[in-house]
Write a structure and sequence with these properties.
By secondary structure, the chain is an alpha/beta fold. The protein folds into two domains: 153 residues, Rossmann fold (3-Layer(aba) Sandwich); 88 residues, SIR2/SIRT2 'Small Domain', CATH 3.30.1600. It is built from eleven helices and nine strands. The two termini are 23 Å apart. Keywords: Metal-binding, NAD, Transferase, Zinc. This is protein acetyllysine N-acetyltransferase. It comes from Cohaesibacter gelatinilyticus.
Amino acid sequence: MDFKSRQQILLEAINAASNIIVFTGAGISTESGVPDYRSPGGLWHKFEPIMYEDFVSSEETRREDWRRRFILNDEFKKAEPNNGHLAIVELQKQNRLLRVITQNVDGLHQRSGLSDDNVIELHGNCTYATCLTCAKPYSFEKCHEKIETTDQSPLCDECGGLLKAAVINFGQAMPLDAMMQAEDDARACDLFIVLGSSLQVYPAAALPQIAKRNGAKLFIINRDPTPLDHLADFVLNAELGRSLHPLII
């Protein structure tokens, strides 16, 4: 079956669905130029991951973590939402989108036009910071200013707690409320579309299986094969923006 025929199958499934979950991984962001964490040359091949307990206990580690976050945030700022992001926004406009569940931390879904209510960020967001004690949000610009002024990692103005990028570090607990909402949505959807995820990181990779067990169709669009391809109703190994482009024309 040629690409256009497979693309038509995807569009027909979308048009027949009313409660669509779109589950996104690094693949949708790399098409916007955001560096991939795991692939060769990615961030985790350049830097040893920073554990949460080390961040909390060591000023030196906190300063190194912030140095990396500023570098990564500069990369995020250069990136623009691509056709894959814009196609999902079109689903929102059509009232077919139940939710986007994302493993990404770059904020590109919100920048593309999705409402905050329609996005669940399983691994947090690396474009702003929060206080680890009182959860007050801070811009990265404010955190950078604090570091420049005090020559120390930034602290909260309200309670004096540690400020940290609002992303989940290794060893840090996944956000329970976000995961529970994602599981509920997976049970409620009638079409679960995976876009650009290797489906190797758990518990997030369990969500397509939950959707499938509860009667949803499972479509996987990814550059490479995934461990869950055998469960899918449809698999397309192709670029996401190209695959979804008919939704935005």
